[in-house]
Design brief:
Blueprint: E1 2-3, H1 15-25, H2 27-33, E2 35-39, H3 41-49, E3 56-60, H4 67-75, E4 81-85, H5 87-93, E5 102-107, E6 120-124, H6 129-142, E7 146-150, H7 159-165, E8 173-178, H8 180-186, E9 191-194, E10 212-216, H9 224-227, E11 231-233, H10 246-262
Parallel strand pairs: 1-4, 3-4, 6-7, 6-10, 7-8, 9-10, 9-11
Antiparallel strand pairs: 2-5, 3-5
Helix pairs in contact: 1-2, 3-4, 6-7, 6-10
Length: about 260
């Protein structure tokens, strides 16, 4: 690593500090800059384990001697820029509560879309960052490596979604900002979508072939354009509830898929 300056940064007018503050709080700036912020040791560790490069590391002065921070600093590539902020300045820009005060700036990956004829997860305007992060984490856990997101879906690389996903993003190839037409053109695996308007229960449907599960908007569900091309699948709800939370429904679908293939 390289410490950019022995001088302690105390001003919020510093260009790096201003950028990080904007990236933490504004989706528009993250999209414009093509960058995001990893807060805390856990997310930075996830990026390091995936050999993902950092643009910059920022940490509070008091965090320098923390054992976990010391370990992170020794694992950084030698060219990585590291800035030390006063404790008061760091506290003024962080979005997390009390913890280990270190964060890293990374470039958001933008993979090129290709034909997908294998397992994938499609997030169709899932708006809540917590739901998106949970679905990404579940996908990574069951071995699905490809996620496609329509333009109304919460940013998968936002600080909030990164925390909800616990860094699962680094185990996935994620396509964002897609239209329903983009998805229909590139995804060749059969489309499946949960629906309350079908008698086909998930436990009766063969999920052993490559599958593209679609999870829809929290209130409106899967859009008509995608639903018309998908096989509707029902999750049994014998107690008569109206619907399941999308992250719960998605997790059930993904785990039933892996159960049929490995544990039936």
């Amino acid at each position: 690593m390289s410490i950019d300056s022995t001088e302690l940064i105390t001003s919020d007018k510093n260009p790096s500090v201003k950028l990080v503050k904007a990236l933490l709080s504004q989706a528009r700036q993250r999209k414009k800059q093509g960058q995001t912020v990893l807060e805390g040791v856990h997310l930075i560790d996830a990026a390091l384990r995936s050999d993902y490069p950092f643009v910059q590391i920022l940490l509070a002065q008091s965090a320098h001697q923390h054992p976990e921070v010391q370990q992170v600093l020794t694992r950084l590539p030698t060219h990585t820029s590291v800035l030390t902020l006063s404790d008061a300045l760091y506290e003024g820009i962080r979005s997390l509560g009390t913890g280990i005060d270190i964060m890293g700036v990374i470039n958001v990956p933008v993979p090129s879309l290709t034909v997908i004829d294998y397992d994938c997860l499609i997030l169709n305007d899932v708006q809540d960052s917590g739901n998106v992060g949970t679905l990404l984490r579940t996908a990574a856990a069951v071995g699905i490596e490809t996620v496609l997101c329509t333009s109304g879906t919460a940013q998968t690389w936002s600080p909030k979604t990164l925390r909800a996903g616990m860094g699962a993003q680094f185990a996935l190839t994620i396509y964002e900002g897609l239209s329903a037409q983009n998805i229909l053109e590139c995804v060749k695996a059969p489309l499946l979508a949960t629906s309350s308007h079908t008698d086909t229960l998930i436990y009766e449907h063969d999920l052993t072939a490559p599958t593209a599960w679609i999870m829809g908007h929290e209130g409106q569900g899967v859009c008509d354009e995608l639903m018309q091309c998908a096989t509707p699948i029902a999750l049994p709800q014998p107690n008569g509830q109206e619907s399941l939370n999308v992250a719960v429904a998605g997790s059930l679908c993904l785990y039933e898929t892996i159960r049929q293939r490995r544990y039936s």
